[in-house]
Amino acid sequence: MIDAKMVADLRAKTGAGMVDCKKALEEANGDTEKAIEILRVKGAMKAAKKADRETAEGLVEAYIHSNGRVGALIELQCETDFVSRNPEFHALAHEIAMQVAAMTPFYVSPEDIPAGLIEKEKAIYLAELAEDKKPEEIKVKIVEGKLNKWYADVCLLNQPWVKDDSKTIGQLITEKVATIGEKIVVARFSRIELAPKNVTE
């Protein structure tokens, strides 16, 4: 039996709508973890349908760390002015700005990395495996794994969220697309850290 408390608890964990939560719990036969996975998959499908929409609105959000030495600015885009004023959208922008300040990404996504730099990384990984006797197809998979780990270091959307490392920033955005109902895009970001004072002899 799916009761109101189960639905409310799932909504609190995922941010999904009450109806979607109830349907997911019914599909999962009351298993909350399975219901969360169902909601994630459906959220990804909804986000994919919105991928080609234009994002002409949004906001610039700032985060300054409590020590005043590190800060970040991000431009988060959406489709309508209505959503750009939505508190949930503002909260998402703040979380992403905090992520930028904390984790120092260099790019939004792997697509933003210059192709030459990716090839350089691949060459380094292949050189590390040069003496390895493993079959070539295994080496290719190892290189792919190393690249994905590198992307998780340098690309904002691929980084594990600092507040919940079970999901990436990209997955966090996908979940919000499903609940807010519009395409959401990180257009750009900037991180500033107070430079250390020059030490003179």
Overview of the molecule:
The longest helix has 19 residues, at 136-154. This protein is α+β, with helices and mostly antiparallel strands and 201 residues long. The protein has a three-stranded antiparallel beta sheet. The chain has helices at residues 4-14, 18-27, 32-49, 81-84, 87-103, 115-128, 136-154, 169-180, and strands at residues 57-64, 70-78, 160-161, 164-168, 185-193. The protein has three domains: 4-49, Helicase, Ruva Protein, domain 3 (Orthogonal Bundle), CATH 1.10.8.10; 57-109 and 155-193, Tetrahydropterin Synthase, Chain A, CATH 3.30.479.20; 114-153, no CATH class. The protein has eight helices and five strands.
Number of domains: 3
Architecture per CATH nomenclature, i.e. the level-2 architecture of the largest domain: 2-Layer Sandwich
Secondary structural class: alpha+beta
Number of strands: 5
Distance between the termini: 74 Å
Strand share of the residues? 15-25%
Mean pLDDT: 87
The CATH topology of the largest domain, please? Tetrahydropterin Synthase, Chain A
Helix percentage: 40-55%
Shape estimate: globular
Sum this structure up briefly.
The chain is an alpha+beta fold.
Question: What is the fold's blueprint, element by element?
Answer:
Elements: H1 4-14, H2 18-27, H3 32-49, E1 57-64, E2 70-78, H4 81-84, H5 87-103, H6 115-128, H7 136-154, E3 160-161, E4 164-168, H8 169-180, E5 185-193
Antiparallel strand pairs: 1-2, 2-5, 3-4
